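Lab notebook, bench 4. The sequencing result for the construct came back, and we need a structural model before the next group meeting so we can plan mutations. Quick request posted to the team channel:

Model the 3D structure of this chain.
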Amino acid sequence: LVASAPLDRCSALIGSCEYYSCVEEERISCGPKGYPIGYGVQYCEKLSALEFSPAHTSINQKVFPADGNTWRDEVRSCLQEEMDSFFTSGEEISCASLKAFAFNSHPRCYTQSISFCDLTPESVIKVCLTISPKDLLMPESINQVRETALICSQQLGGKLRTEDNSLVRLQLHKYRAIWEKVSVNPLLINTLSSNSSEP
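Done. Here's the predicted structure in token form:
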């Protein structure tokens, strides 16, 4: 398949969940189970509906400094910008290649300037709870959790190298250890809620 419609209308919708419906209607028709409708728009709407609270204590504000609401909005735009680039990449355009490209972009978008790794454990779990069990068990989902966990472990390791406060370092060590376990077994993602809750 080759995208025949101009990219401008869909590109103008980046930042809105309507972007995925535009892609389905004007660029590539993958049906109700394809990535744009079966995954993209569904999870865009779920993520957009979430509201996040900041960390409550001064220690945890240093450990989990991300503004979850800004993270949510940046991720939504990043995922759509990445998808937009797929249609101008010169690569073969098919529903399978679009799905693979989109899933490969997830860890990058989750851990950009405002990182998933810097959200409070409660916020991480709130995001994870939007994923249906059957989707969480998809090979693509397992891979994206593994890749995100590896990036989180590396990012937290970098923070540990520059952090002087012993209480902050203790929390960072604890949180990094959990991400390392998740990178080995992505289905352990839910342990973040029980093992890293704020004191």
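The CA atoms of residues 6 and 107 lie 28 Å apart.
Will bring this to the meeting.
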